[in-house]
Design a protein that fits this description.
CATH architecture: 6 Propeller
Number of domains: 1
Strand order of the largest sheet: 6-12-11-8-7
Keywords: Kelch repeat, Repeat
Distance between the termini: 5 Å
CATH superfamily: Kelch-type beta propeller
Pfam families: Kelch_KLHDC2_KLHL20_DRC7 (PF24681)
Structural class: mainly beta
Strand content: 35-45%
Region (Disordered): 140-164
Biased composition (Low complexity): 150-159
Radius of gyration: 20 Å
């Protein structure tokens, strides 16, 4: 993987206007759904676009989607950027797309709503959360004790408003959310929404601060397994760019790896372009949190053939962003290794892209992974740089 190709859309295919901060997600087949964002005016969008790539890789077609909005109290879907889209398949080629959070930079509003778009009917509805007391049986004894000691943090039924966070599909039945920026700045909390119970649960409330990465917005993130979330970089509370890599094991409810890198970056994207899903983290039945936590990180290394002193290929790719000096357009490859002391190590290294053209540098773009004719591919949509609000689409194969 390392060849860039620009997606040539149909001449009669109207596409989205140039923008940054849009959210996108793959929704099955060779289809990407794009929502919202904002340009440099600033003007915020609340439009939906479907990009369908042709099977022979010759191009693509944009279609503007007009969902049937069925929000309570006859509300409209307000414009926003920095929201997240998460797709949960439901079979027969359809599924549910969850939109969470975001901000309207024009109005100064930050959102905490969770909405659902059904791709079989294109109906957009509110997600009705279960009553607050339905959450209690789901809490572990340790979490319940912590709730009694620190009720203000633990009695939240849902995550506070945020934008520019990281989100991913948890076990194809929920959403894992980390960080972002709220009313008081960058956040470091981790939340899990579970479809079966229609509840949010804070997974990080009982974790010691020294076992967690610092709060951040505009980080890159991707699921490395069914329950493992990888995060890189972002911007911290003091405005400085961050360069660390962290992995959160959703099943063990803890961070299993926090490691510095040489690449400060924000407003970039991360994609897991593995040809097949990585093994889900977890230990044997009855295993403690430590065993489950280690399995999340160790599974990633094993999946890529990691060994002490080796340099195995990896399908974890980071693209673009702002490095503190300039807007960049490079690709970074993440490799998991095992040290001679059997410690898990993460290494980032630049990958030289090939092809007759390469995309212009950008940040605040959107990326997703699609299955290709022979292998998976990363698709990059839009973004902004020093002079342009971009509306182009590129494939990295």
């Amino acid at each position: 993987m390392g060849t860039w190709q620009q997606v040539q859309t149909d001449a009669n295919s109207e596409g989205p206007a140039g923008r940054g901060g849009a959210a996108c997600v793959a929704i099955g087949g060779r289809r990407l759904l794009l929502f919202g964002g904002a340009n440099r005016t600033p003007f915020s969008f609340n439009d939906w676009w479907l990009l369908e790539l042709t099977g022979d890789c010759s191009g693509g077609h944009w279609t503007k989607i007009s969902p049937v909005v069925k929000l309570t109290k006859k509300r409209k879907l307000l414009p926003r950027s920095g929201a997240s889209l998460t797709y949960i398949p439901a079979g027969n080629g359809f599924g549910r797309v969850y939109i969470f959070g975001g901000q309207d930079p024009v109005a100064g509003a930050i959102f905490a709503d969770l909405l659902c778009l059904d791709t079989s009917s294109w109906e957009l509805t509110d997600v009705a959360l279960a009553p607050e007391d339905a959450l209690l049986p789901e809490l572990s004894k340790q979490q319940q004790r912590h709730q009694e000691q620190d009720p203000p943090a633990q009695q939240l039924q849902r995550p506070p408003a945020r934008h520019s966070h990281v989100a991913g599909a948890y076990e194809q039945s929920g959403i894992l959310v980390f960080g972002g920026a709220g009313l008081r700045g960058p956040l470091s909390d981790v939340w899990l929404f579970q479809e079966a119970t229609a509840t949010w649960r804070c997974l990080s409330g009982a974790l010691p601060a020294d076992e967690c990465p610092e709060g951040r917005e505009m980080a890159a993130g991707t699921m490395i397994s069914e329950a493992g979330l990888l995060v890189h970089g972002g911007r911290g509370a003091d405005g400085a760019l961050l360069h660390d890599i962290a992995i959160f094991d959703g099943r063990a409810a803890r961070w299993v790896l926090i490691q510095a890198t040489k690449f400060p970056r924000c407003a970039h994207t991360a994609c897991n372009a593995a040809a097949a899903p990585l093994p889900a983290p977890g230990g044997a039945a009855g295993a403690g949190g430590d065993a489950q936590a280690a399995a999340a990180a160790n599974g990633a290394a094993a999946a890529h053939g990691g060994a002490a002193g080796g340099s195995p290929a990896s399908n974890m790719l980071l693209y673009g962003g702002f490095d503190g000096t300039a807007v960049v357009g490079d690709v970074l490859q993440l490799t998991f290794l095992r040290s001679c002391r059997d410690e898990l190590l993460a290494e980032l290294r630049p990958v030289t892209g090939t092809g007759s053209e390469v995309p212009p540098p950008r940040f605040a773009h959107a990326s997703a992974v699609l299955p290709g004719p022979q292998a998976t591919e990363v698709v990059v949509l839009g973004g902004v740089n020093e002079t342009q609000d971009l509306s182009d689409a590129w494939r990295l194969v």
